[in-house]
Every structure is written in structure tokens, then in C-alpha cells.
Design a protein that fits this description.
The chain folds into 2 domains: about 10-360, no CATH class; about 370-495, no CATH class. It contains 20 helices and 5 strands. The protein has helices spanning about 10-35, 40-50, 60-75, 80-105, 105-115, 135-150, 155-170, 175-185, 190-195, 200-220, 225-230, 240-265, 285-305, 320-330, 330-365, 365-370, 375-390, 400-410, 430-435, 445-455; strands at about 395, 415, 435-440, 460-465, 480-485. Strand 1, helix 18 and strand 2 form a beta-alpha-beta unit. The protein is globular and about 80 Å long.
């Protein structure tokens, strides 16, 4: 029999131990699971983050800044990126713990925290560091700061909420659904009049606007590229949008199925009317805060013809366990024991699954497992060094090959995304002249090869390379590339 720990007495110890174990297990899972290059979303974060702009053509800057700062300290390797991913979800769980502490008893706080890691959102899906997974870290802290401001309105808590709200919007504009939920929930709080008569909301708004100002100025100066990119996400057929609706709604069932099952089976049938998890006056407030982002996502998708995906659902469930605990009222000690058993089984199975999954992914033909991205990046980089003897400053070409080459080059290499200066404004004619350009194109990628030819000079060189994935489970089929080398041709003192 497993006894539930004395959570009230040693809460900080148990939470610290749990989060540390979580970070270690899922970092190791990522390293064992990924036999090939990192996902392009992750490499993209680093590519942007090393430039430290106030915005990028797809998204606001915070998640890329975190990746850039991280690799100023850590080596550019898979394990370091998976450590960042796992730490992001782990610190998000700390935010969940702090948030639950505002409303729930220790037993329910720890039960809710444990329940979250039975969902793939804070485990498997969190390993891909991108503009969705960063919200696992940011959103719980936004809700916690908001809860503090509502319970103890004042200047300090108002500033904290404003800073967290700005961090959320600077991570992804999708955070607007959470901030709108905070606004709606505020009027369901029993002390809402006291809140709006205090300085907290106005200080929060002022702090939010100040922190957002540099990004807004960047938007204006660059003709609002992120909004233009967001607008392209509305150009889908009715069938595609409808499919997104269905998949998004089904994600609620899939991501929370085990949470619901554990809570339901832990009910005490002898005492079905156990005491409230939440104060009765706060139940509606918490429910709006918890379910508002989900409901608003559906409303926005319908209004603006947006195709939703399950990735949008990754950050929105952090308060769902508390709402379910209030609705079903299980025996918390029984729930904790069962959740510990299930969680331990999940963590124990993680390592065998991580070892097997690369082979399974290769057999199923998953692209990043079978394309020779690392192999061609090494050969193309070697050809560059043999031809120029210079550091690799800029790379372009077919995706994901150019991105992979930049990340694994071991040098400060920029990617000239799509040969488009609007996507990579840090690549200019002068940087191309002084540093040169390496372009890796699939042989049959006519557009890539045509664009590469437009940058050819009298010193340019094209090398044909055929390579196949070296992993034992990969296809034996070879892939042919054309590697275009434009050497640096600026004066020596500019190189």
C-alpha cells in the first residue's frame, strides 16, 4: 500500500522533489526518443533568439529570447534543448501549485498537480519547445498573479499581474483568450467592486502597456508582419476549419480522459457529498477562469474562420483539475494514492518507450526520422570549409536542411529564411558579401535552386551530393541535393 505523504507539513519539499524528477525524466526521454535532428519549431526558436529582435515575422519575441539566452550558456545540443523544454513545463507546474494554493487545501493542491502530469500536455507535448509550449510556463503564472490581485488588490500585485500578462502576450497573441477570461472572471468574484476601486487593475494595465510598447513600436515600424501572418491562418476551406473544430474539441476528451477517470473512481460512495474543494462564492470565478480560454478559442475560430489544432489546446487545461475536483469531490487521499501509482507507471514506461519509438517512427516513415538532415548538413558544411576556409555565416535552402545546418554548425550561423529579407532582416547584402552564403537545395526543388542561382557570383560553386539516412531503421532510399557555395567576396578587413 502507498500512503499519501504529509503534504501540509512538507509541501515545499514534495513539490520540489516532484518537479525535479519531472524535469529529469522528460529530459532523458527527449534525448533517448529523438535519434535525428530537433524539430524545426525548436531550431526556429534558437535561430530567431540569437538575434534578439522585438518581434519576428510569425510571433512576438519572448519564447525566442528564452531559447537565445539559454544557448548563450548551454551547448547547442539536443539534450540542452530538451532540458529547456522540460524545465519550461516544470516551472509551469510550480505556477500551478502557487495558483491552487490561493483556493484549495494542501491535499487538493497536490492532487491537482499530480493529475496534470497524467495528461500529455505537460509531458510528451511539452518536449517540443515552441510558441505553444512556452504558454505552459506563462499561463499558470498569469492566472496566479491575477488571483493575487483579486484577493489582495494593491500596487505590487497589480504590477505582478501586468508583467505576467505582458509576458503572455509577448509569447503568443493567443494569450488574449486567457486575458479575456481573466476580465470576464473578475466580475464573478465576490470582491470585484473592491478590486476595481483599488489601484491594482490600473497599475496592471499601465505596466502591461509599458512592457508591450517596444513590441508595438516594432510592429508599426515593420508594417505589422505578425498580424499579416496571423491573417494567413484564416485562409482555409470550411471543411478544414470544421475538422479543426472537431479535433480541438476531441482534444478535451483525450487530454483529460485519465484525469476524469482518476477523479471519478476516487469518489467516496459512502460520503458522496464531501465538503467543497473551493469556497462556494469562488466556484463560478474559478470555472470561468478555467474554461474561458477553451470557450473563447472556439468563438474566435468561428468568428474569424481559424483552423484550430490540438496544439492550441496544450496550455489551456491547467485549472481543469481543480474544477473537476470541485464537481466530483473525490476522497483526496485516495485520489493522491491512485494518481501516484498511475504517474509512477507513466514515468517508468517513459524510458522503454523512448528507446523503442525512434525505430517505430522510422518504420512509419515519420519525416524527421528518415530524412538525412544531419547527414547532408555535415557534408555541406565540410564542402563549405574545403572551398572557402571561412566560418559559415549564413545558410539557406530547402527546409529543414538549412535550419539543421545552422543549429549543428557549431558556429554563429544565421538562416536566410525563404531567401526573404522580411523573414530574416538580419541578413543583408553586406552580410552576404562579407560572410558568403551556403545554400542546400533538394535537387528537385526548382524554386530553391533558382533562388540560389540568383545569388551566384563569379566565384560561386555548386556541388551535387547524394546521401541517405544512416540510422538502422531508416529507408535505404538516397536523397539528392545541390549545394551552392557563394564564398565571401568582401575585402579582407570586412571578413
Amino acid at each position: 500500500m502507498i500512503k499519501a505523504p504529509n503534504l501540509a507539513r512538507n509541501a515545499a519539499f514534495w513539490v520540489g522533489t516532484f518537479v525535479t524528477a519531472h524535469v529529469c525524466v522528460w529530459t532523458l526521454y527527449g534525448v533517448l526518443h529523438q535519434s535525428g535532428p530537433l524539430h524545426p519549431d525548436m531550431i526556429e526558436a534558437w535561430l530567431w533568439g540569437q538575434e534578439y529582435q522585438f518581434g519576428y515575422y510569425k510571433h512576438p519575441p519572448l519564447w525566442a529570447w528564452l531559447a537565445g539566452a539559454w544557448f548563450e550558456i548551454f551547448p547547442r545540443s539536443n539534450w540542452a534543448f530538451y532540458l529547456l523544454s522540460s524545465l519550461t513545463s516544470g516551472l509551469g507546474l510550480v505556477g500551478v501549485w502557487k495558483l491552487y494554493g490561493v483556493y484549495a487545501r494542501p491535499e487538493h493542491r497536490f492532487a491537482g498537480l499530480l493529475l496534470l502530469v497524467t495528461s500529455p500536455c505537460y509531458t510528451l507535448l511539452a518536449l517540443r519547445f515552441n510558441a505553444n509550449s512556452i504558454l505552459l510556463l506563462v499561463w499558470p503564472w498569469v492566472a496566479y498573479a491575477f488571483a493575487l490581485a483579486m484577493e489582495r488588490p494593491g500596487v505590487r500585485n497589480g504590477l505582478f499581474f501586468g508583467a505576467c500578462a505582458a509576458a503572455a502576450m509577448l509569447s503568443k497573441y493567443y494569450s488574449a483568450v486567457l486575458l479575456a477570461s481573466c476580465l470576464a472572471a473578475s466580475f464573478a468574484h465576490p470582491q470585484w467592486r473592491r478590486f476595481y476601486r483599488s489601484p491594482a487593475p490600473y497599475v496592471a494595465l499601465a505596466g502591461f502597456l509599458v512592457l508591450m510598447a517596444p513590441h508595438v513600436i516594432w510592429l508599426v515600424n515593420n508594417d505589422f508582419p505578425t498580424l499579416a501572418y496571423a491573417e494567413t491562418r484564416t485562409h482555409f476551406t470550411d471543411e478544414s476549419v470544421g475538422f479543426g473544430f472537431v479535433s480541438f474539441m476531441l482534444s478535451v476528451l483525450l487530454f483529460n480522459a485519465l484525469i476524469v477517470l482518476l477523479i471519478y473512481t476516487a469518489r467516496d460512495r459512502d460520503h458522496p457529498k464531501r465538503g467543497d474543494v473551493l469556497d462556494a462564492t469562488l466556484a463560478r470565478f474559478v470555472a470561468i477562469l478555467a474554461l474561458g480560454p477553451y470557450a473563447l478559442s472556439l468563438v474566435v475560430a468561428a468568428a474569424f474562420h481559424v483552423r484550430l489544432s490540438t496544439n492550441f489546446a496544450i496550455p489551456i487545461y491547467f485549472l481543469v483539475p481543480l474544477v473537476l475536483l470541485q464537481a466530483l469531490r473525490p476522497d483526496p487521499r485516495r485520489l493522491i494514492r491512485r494518481t501516484i501509482l498511475v504517474g509512477a507507471a507513466i514515468y517508468a514506461l517513459a524510458m522503454p518507450i523512448a528507446l523503442i519509438s525512434p525505430y517505430a517512427m522510422g518504420l512509419l516513415g515519420k519525416e524527421l526520422s528518415v530524412v538525412p538532415a544531419v547527414e547532408i548538413s555535415e557534408l555541406a558544411h565540410a564542402a563549405w570549409v574545403d572551398t572557402t576556409g571561412a566560418p559559415l555565416a549564413t545558410v539557406a535552402g530547402s527546409e529543414p536542411y538549412a535550419m539543421v545546418t545552422a543549429f549543428y554548425s557549431g558556429e554563429r550561423t544565421r538562416e536566410f529564411t525563404g531567401f526573404n529579407p522580411g523573414f530574416a532582416p538580419w541578413v543583408t547584402p553586406s552580410t552576404l558579401a562579407s560572410g558568403g552564403l551556403l545554400t542546400i537545395c533538394l535537387r528537385n526543388d526548382a524554386l530553391c535552386n533558382r533562388r540560389a542561382d540568383s545569388y551566384n557570383t563569379g566565384e560561386s560553386k555548386t556541388v551535387a551530393i547524394t546521401v541517405r539516412r544512416k540510422a538502422p531503421f531508416a529507408s535505404k532510399r538516397s536523397t539528392s541535393f545541390l549545394v551552392h557555395i557563394q564564398p565571401p567576396h568582401a575585402p579582407e578587413h570586412l571578413r
